[in-house]
């Protein structure tokens, strides 16, 4: 209920249904990675967007409040919370632009599970949804995709279509687990076909 109440009103593609899909992805990956701590993986999946800087105004306050809730209401140990927060703090695409963090096996699974929900048919829908909510243009033929993203330019204006080139197409090679790499391959192909078709129709070639 804690996560549902927090995320259910989101309109940008980071809602509770996204959380549920990430959890489901993680459960599949956990079945392939037997040595991982299931509890830490699933808890991190449920909480991974809870204090995301894209979604909250005060990350520090939200994080402190979450720690208090986990200790007082759920009696989760400080060590476990620290491990969960480390995963959440180091897993995002943006937080790995300047330096690639070495994640635990649990962190790798959570990262893969989240990234799998950013690609494929659902990824196409989420990219469009996020763009619409934030007023991002769908396409600009005069604006080339940035070849390299940095922490400084990551939040700068782009287009929905450029977002596929700048980030989403790259996620396949950034997956950690064999199972996630396999799934990402077909999902990336679907996105590439979508973008190719969109651009052809935009140019009047189809």
Automatic annotation (TrEMBL):
InterPro entries: HD/PDEase_dom (IPR003607), HD_domain (IPR006674). Residues 15-119 form the HD domain. This is HD domain-containing protein. It comes from Amylolactobacillus amylophilus DSM 20533 = JCM 1125.
């Amino acid at each position: 209920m804690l996560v549902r109440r927090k995320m259910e009103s989101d309109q940008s593609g980071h809602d509770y249904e996204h959380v549920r899909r990430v959890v489901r992805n993680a459960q599949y990956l956990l079945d392939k990675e037997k040595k991982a701590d299931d509890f830490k993986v699933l808890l991190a999946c449920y909480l991974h967007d809870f204090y995301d800087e894209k979604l909250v105004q005060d990350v520090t306050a939200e994080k402190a409040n979450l720690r208090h809730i986990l200790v007082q209401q759920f009696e989760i140990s400080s060590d476990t919370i620290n491990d969960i927060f480390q995963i959440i703090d180091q897993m995002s695409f943006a937080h790995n632009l300047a330096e690639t963090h070495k994640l635990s096996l649990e962190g790798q699974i959570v990262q893969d599970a989240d990234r799998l929900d950013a690609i494929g048919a659902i990824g196409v829908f989420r990219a469009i949804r996020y763009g619409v909510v934030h007023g991002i243009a769908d396409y600009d033929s005069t604006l080339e995709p940035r070849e390299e993203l940095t922490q400084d330019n990551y939040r700068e204006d782009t287009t929905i279509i450029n977002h596929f080139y700048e980030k989403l197409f790259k996620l396949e090679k950034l997956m950690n687990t064999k199972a996630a790499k396999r799934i990402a391959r077909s999902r990336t192909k679907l996105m590439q076909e979508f973008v190719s078709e969109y651009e052809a129709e935009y140019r009047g070639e189809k």
